[in-house]
Amino acid sequence: MPARRNTLLGLALVATAAQLCAHVFVTPLAASRGLSRMTRAAMSVDEVEIGSKYEGKVTGVRSFGAFVDFGCESEGLVHISQLTDGFVDNINDEVQEGQDVEVWVKSIEGTKVGLTMVESKLAGRPPRPQVDLSVFEPLIDGEQITGTVKAVKPFGAFVEVEVEGQVAQGLVHVSRLANGFVDDVYSIVSEGDEVQVTVYEVDLDGGKLGLSMRTEEEDAGEDGEEEEE
């Protein structure tokens, strides 16, 4: 009987340990340490602190944002506007299900946790000054201006340009990166490159700037073909 009792006790301890190990959460990032991972019961929402940094995994991607398991009993939502510092054209180009990400807690409302993948978008951080894109309107289909590639994505490149003291980032869509078909964006531009672009669209209401790296000859040729049709 003692042997049987010890066996049952051992099995119970193993089962308890397995249940505890099934919940993994990530501790907030300490100033003097990197991200640390601990094995213990999942955090309650009450334990989560706004402004804290966590490491998590994307569990689902929707048109409005991504759900992230960051070790809390409730998954957090990274709204599409909180995925990156720039404009997101296609959320699937930014995050994928199963991807490991670093997030900051932006808000807590009941059991709902709002996350951001951009630290500067935390509440209390100074907001970016509003850019007056109207200064770019006279340049539509005009002369080329010099810009710097700030980010490269599968769908195109974000380029920073300056006109009359106004600095803004515009998107050069993959279809406007070069004359002809572009199979690989990364073979055309890299972050930090200095490029020549033209302005082809200014959306004042949406705060979007459309840029192009195609030459004037290519654009003129396409316009001519459209007129003939």
What does this structure look like?
It is elongated and about 60 Å long. Strand 8 and strand 9 form a beta hairpin. The protein has helices at 2-21, 216-228; strands at 24-26, 37-39, 53-62, 65-69, 76-79, 100-109, 112-116, 145-153, 156-163, 166-173, 194-203, 208-212. It is an alpha+beta fold and 229 residues long. 14% of the residues lie in helices and 35% in strands.
The ordered string of helix (H) and strand (E) elements is HEEEEEEEEEEEEH
Name the helicity range: 10-25%
Radius of gyration: 25 Å
Q: What does the main sheet amount to?
A: 5 strands, mixed, barrel
Q: Main sheet: which strands, in order across?
A: 3-4-5-7-6
Strand content: 25-35%
Ends: how far apart? 92 Å
Pairing-aware structural class of the strands and helices?
Answer: alpha+beta
Q: Mean pLDDT score, rounded?
A: 78
Total helical elements? 2
Structural shape: elongated
Number of strand elements: 12
Uncertain stretches: 13-40, 223-229
